[in-house]
Amino acid sequence: MVLSPQNIGRLSAVITVLLWTSFIIVGRASSSHVLLPLDIACTRIVGASLVLLPWAWWMMREQRQRGEKVGSLFGLSPLPLRQTVQAGFLGGLMFAMLVYIGFFFAPAGHASVLMPGSLPLWTTLLMWLFLREQIGVHRAIGLSFILVGDVLVGGASLLKAFEGGDVWIGDLLFVCASICWSAYSVTVRRFGLDAARATMAITAFALVSFVPLFSLLVLLNILPSHFSQASWSEILLQVSFQGVGSVAISGISFTQMIRSYGPVKSTMITAVVPGLSALGAVIILGEPLSWNLMVGLALVTCGILFGVRQAMVKT
Fold first, then answer.
1. Which of 56, 83, 301, 310 has its Cβ near the most Cβ atoms within 10 Å?
2. Degrees, nearest 5: CA angle 216-217-220
3. Which of 46, 34, 29, 35 lies closest to 103 in space, CA to CA?
4. For 152-188, what is each residue's pLDDT tens digit?
């Protein structure tokens, strides 16, 4: 059965929401296990590379056989070098490092608000800044709700920093990760990148730029690593979920959603992710649901839903 473009967009949205929700819960749960943040980032990159890079090689084989110059990074990326570096640095390398380090400082509930909940805010601002997309009154109101919700959650942890708390570090890293992913979304839109090729490209860039350097620094005892202490089951779980699920499948579904709906509306569709992941953190991880987190979550969700409503009305 051949799916229509509309159904492909809907299916991509459902897959993205499910995997993003699981990503936050599993990512936070991983902080209590053996592997360190950059170890998990490494499993993410390696796992995705095992699936996506052979696929990329197969995709480009006919062009190579005809003697055409295709791709970049030694034939690992199907995109030109400029697009590969720009998208890969934002969506492949920086996002992974920031978010996994953040999980070791701040709870999943904070990640729910400050990462997927903030995507509409940062994406809209970047679209306005680089692509000159206008921000209407209704969208501005929705984004103001998101901003207040972010400040309510992140500001509370920042105040506790004076008492010796370090949750604010994770919150700041989550905000930076959200900005990086929003910038990646705008890059996809700007270049009109294909879903699969964009995900292959960011994986190739992360593999070439991160894995060799990380391995060298670990061997030289400059960076710590707990790979030798972790069980094979834990490593394989992280490779499978973080690499295959969160990158290969989720990356393609998210990029396809951008192509179907545009970056702003796509990030609006993820309105249910903050609530689902925060609820999952309470039920599965036993995290407390403080008043400021509940209010911040409500404001962010209302802001996203308000934007969805206005976007749907315009279309």
1. 56
2. 85
3. 29
4. 777 766 666 656 678 889 989 999 999 999 999 889 8
- Please give the Cα distance from 310 to 288 (Å, whole number): 33
Q: Please name which of 17, 27, 10 lies closest in space to residue 271, comparing C-alpha atoms.
A: 17
CA distance 20 to 115: 10
Residue 125 has a CB neighbour count (10 Å cut-off) of 16
Q: Which residue has the higher pLDDT, 75 or 41?
A: 41
pTM for the whole structure: 0.85
> Hey, what are 217's tokens?
């620094």
Most confident of 5-14, 181-190, 247-256: 181-190
Domain map (residue ranges) of the chain: 5-314
